[in-house]
Amino acid sequence: MIENTESDIRHQDTACSNGSSLHHPWYYNLKYLLTGIIFGIIFVKAEVISWFRIQEMFRLQSFHMYGIIGSAIVVGMISVWLIKKFNVKTIYGEPINIPSKKFNKGQIYGGLIFGFGWAITGACPGPLFAQIGTGALAVSVTLLSAIAGTWVYGYFRDKLPH
């Protein structure tokens, strides 16, 4: 087995690689709550949380979800490119560091497990809270399963292929 260096494993830790040394009062976090609520409303209005839309996607019956996911990927790619090209800093003036990541077979296994779970439950982690917020309380089982899966991964992380 190949030993991973500390820098190879750094991106797996709970600490952020761009962690800030600034400390703010608790109410500074309300902006994230507000952003999450707005994001959830957009998910509901765009039908991203619809189990039927997700099933259409996995059955290759509709372009709706592929269009949303594809545009998110394009926006993300352009954003990362702009951050790197213009050496963009945070609003507090701290540098943004995007570490390189190596491809490995564990990403294929993880992606397949994620995709199977998404197809079976009709939910991925982002829309789970919006689904629960709209009254689909059965999705709470999916949320608890996602939390349990994250815990299991953390427990076995050192033994898994990375």
Automatic annotation (TrEMBL):
This is YeeE/YedE family protein. The chain crosses the membrane at residues 32-52, 64-83, 108-130, 136-156. The keyword Translocase does not apply. Keywords: Membrane, Transmembrane, Transmembrane helix. It comes from the Bacteria. It holds the Pfam family Sulf_transp. The keyword Acetylation does not apply. InterPro entries: Sulf_transp_TsuA/YedE (IPR007272).
